[in-house]
C-alpha cells in the first residue's frame, strides 16, 4: 500500500495547488460522487475508517462542505464504500458456476477461488474489510450473513453430491465444515497481502492444494461428526 499512500499524498498536493491557482474542478454531480467514492475507498483502505474527512476532502479536491453535500455524514459515506467495495466485489454469477455439475467439484471450486482471490480478496479489499470489522460491529457479520453463509452452503451441497454423502441436519456444523476450505483460502490471502508472505508457490497451485484436501477429507469429517453426535 506504500505506492497507494504516495499517490494519495501526491493527489492532495496537486488538488491543493489547483485550488490556489483558482481552478474550480467542477464536475457533473454523478461524476463527482463516483470520484469521491473511489478516492474514499483508497483513503479508508490506507488510513482506516477513523481517517479524517478533512484529509479525504483534500484528496478529492473538494471542500468539506461539498463533501457533506454528497454524503451528509461520515457514516453514510463509509456505508456506501462498504456497499460498493465490500459487497459489490462479489459476483452473483459465481453461485451459478459453482453449481454447474458438468464440471467436477474440484474444477469448479478451484476456478471460483482463483477468481475470488484475484477480484475480491485483494490488498485493498482485505484492508477495508479488516478496518470495517474493527470499527463497526455490524459490517463483517452482515457480509457473512448476506454472502458467505450462502456460499458455504453451496460448497457443501455440491461437494456432498459429488462424493455421495448426506450432510448433517445441523446447519451450523455444516457451515463450520465449509469454513475449513473458505477460511484457509481467506487466510492465504491475508498472508499474501497483509503479512507479505506466501508468494513463492503459484496461487493456483495453492488453491488446488486446499480444494483437494477439503474434498478428500470431507467424507471422514462428516462421518466423525455423525459418530460423535449420534
From TrEMBL:
PROSITE patterns according to UniProt: HTH_TETR_2
Pfam families from the UniProt entry: TetR_N
Q: Reply yes or no: does the keyword GTP-binding apply.
A: no
Instruction: List residues annotated as DNA-binding.
Output: 52-71
Q: Which keywords, in A-to-Z order, does the entry hold?
A: DNA-binding
Residue spans crossing the bilayer: none
| Name under which the protein is recorded | TetR/AcrR family transcriptional regulator
Species this chain originates from: Thalassovita aquimarina
Phylogenetic classification of the source organism: Bacteria, Pseudomonadati, Pseudomonadota, Alphaproteobacteria, Rhodobacterales
